[in-house]
Design goal:
By secondary structure, this protein is of the alpha+beta class. The protein has helices at residues 2-17, 29-37, 41-46, 64-81, 136-145; strands at residues 25-28, 50-54, 59-62, 87-94, 98-105, 149-155, 161-168. 35% of the residues lie in helices and 26% in strands.
């Protein structure tokens, strides 16, 4: 656990300092999400979580490795907060201004008083797993912002959590 924390802190420091050069290649965002899910597919299966990915394979400029790391941290957060037989839906949409990826789950959502702190480094919500170090969502935000994007966390009216990731197109 200490090694994971050390590696995460080193990675965050490098990202913050601009010491990691992100590739700017045309990548398929849907394929990047599939790549992100690979390391946690057994956890998803163990909890019998339904994972649905909808939308066309939209191309954006970015680094597939680092974006898959960002999506892994977001999706893993949803998986960890879902009960057995939960559901995660991922929607990909694009328009002339931005490409949006919405990640929604049918869990309990975010506590209202914790929502402003979700992306803060080392923040662990009341319902965080005991193994959480509170850095994954902060790292995801940093990576997304370095790809001309933004991430927002919100509750769904019907129940559950939603992450909205937008990648703005540069003209």
């Amino acid at each position: 656990r200490l090694e994971a924390l050390t590696n995460s802190l080193l990675t965050m420091s490098k990202l913050d300092a601009g010491a990691i050069e992100l590739k700017k290649e045309n990548i398929d965002i849907k394929n990047t999400i599939y790549l992100a899910v690979e390391p946690i597919i057994s956890l998803i299966g163990k909890k019998n979580i339904a994972l649905n990915i909808e939308g066309k394979g939209v191309q954006i400029k970015g680094d597939a490795y680092w974006l898959s790391e960002a999506f892994l941290n977001i999706i893993k957060n949803s998986v960890e907060h879902l009960k057995v037989n939960g559901q995660i839906n991922i929607f990909i949409q694009s328009n002339p201004i931005f490409t949006e990826v919405r990640i929604e789950d049918n869990g309990s959502g975010f506590l209202a008083n914790e929502l402003p702190y979700i992306f803060k480094r080392f923040f662990k919500g009341k319902n965080a797993s005991k193994d959480s170090i509170g850095i994954g969502l902060s790292m995801a935000r940093t990576i997304i912002e370095q790809h001309n994007g933004e991430i927002i966390a919100e509750n769904i009216k019907e129940g559950g959590a939603r992450f909205r990731v937008k990648f703005y197109k540069i003209l």
